Structure formats: structure tokens, C-alpha cells
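Mods, move this if it's the wrong board.
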Amino acid sequence: MQTLFELNPGRVIIRNVPIYYWIGLAYGNECPAPDTLVGGPDWIRTDWYDLQATLPAGTPNYTKEQWFIGNAPVLQRMLQTMLADRFKLVLKRDVKEIQGYNLVLAQEGKLKFSADQTTDTPPEARQSTPGVPIFPLLSTSISRLAASLQQPWLGRPIVDRTGLTGLYDIWLEFPEIGPAPQTDTAPGPNRGARDRLERMKALLPSKLESTTGLRLEPAKVPVETLVIVSVEKPSDN
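Not the wrong board. C-alpha cells:
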């Protein structure tokens, strides 16, 4: 089964992903959730595009987690340049209140302090039961957790209202979804993988609260938005 995003030393691949989400990846912390990117024609959300690019020598070896939460500045600038050149993308900034979440501590005693309190680290690639989806963040701050949940998981801005400091181990498992099939025969581009991801997204808020005691409460939050002024479909050549 092909993954939608691959990030290897010297190479980046995006498969079957609308340009709307490319822009989110390109602007990262400036565009932390889909609702903070507004405007543009319908096709940027419905037409699927692929990208395969070789990165110049000396490009830092970012992790996908760094990329998804907007902490891969060199890679993001390259993607911004490509979008401007290839899709003639023009953006402007604005501020508005949109629907998001406050992250609050609903039940004490469930969060586990990390044994390592020195470094806020990216998630490690681990799994328990083979094939069972997981959401792992080890030795992480609550602010990093909030950023990691925003995109691509919940797609809305999240404000940390917990007041918690220190680093924690957060490990969410989704046995309800079960192991991935050996082959994906569902119609459409990576349909099976996307369906599993959507099921994880739906379960994540309740799983987060039952496992960690942290609750996502819907709320209007002020955020800086990026407004799409203009964008064009690329030519075939």
C-alpha cells in the first residue's frame, strides 16, 4: 500500500493529495489547520496531484512529524517556491475567529511524565500489536501535542489551556480499527489508507481523553489565516 507522503534523505514524494493540503504543508505554523487557509477555487480541494522532487545537497533531514507541524523551514520554503512558480499561488494574511478547540485537563492522574525531562522530542516510529494504528508522542510537551493534533489529524486550531509544564509520554492505540489489509483494492487513490485515517480521526478525541485525561472542547479561537488571492492549474508541459 502506498503512503500519501514520503520524506527520505534527499527526496520528497506526495501522492494523490489536493493542492489545498500542499499549501498547509508549505506554510506549516503559519497555516496550522485547514480552516486557517481560506478562499480559492473548488479544484484545489478536489483535484489530486503528485509530487516527486530531489532535494538539493545540504537540505536538513527532517522527519515527517517536523514537516506536518511546520518545523521544517528549508523544505517548506522549497514547497512555497514550487507552488508560486508552478501554480502561480498568491496569498495574503488576515485574522479571524474560527471554530477550533481548547485543550483542557479533564481528569488528573492519567498523564504520565516522561523519564527524560531534558528534550522535547519528535514522535518515535514504534508500534505494539503489528498493524494496529498508533499515535505516539514520547518525551513531549503539551504544546507539541496540541500542534501535532492540529494537522493533519483534527484539521482545526487547538489552544493549550491545560497550564501543564514538563514532558510526557503519550501513546494512543486504535485496536478498534484493526490491522491494515495486505493489499488495498478499494477504488480511488489510496482509498483504504484514507478510510483508516478518517476512522482514527473520529476516534482520536475520545481516545485522548480516556487515555490521558485531556479533553478537546469546541471553542471559537482567534487565529491568523492565509487567504488564497489567486492560484492557477499547471500546464501539462
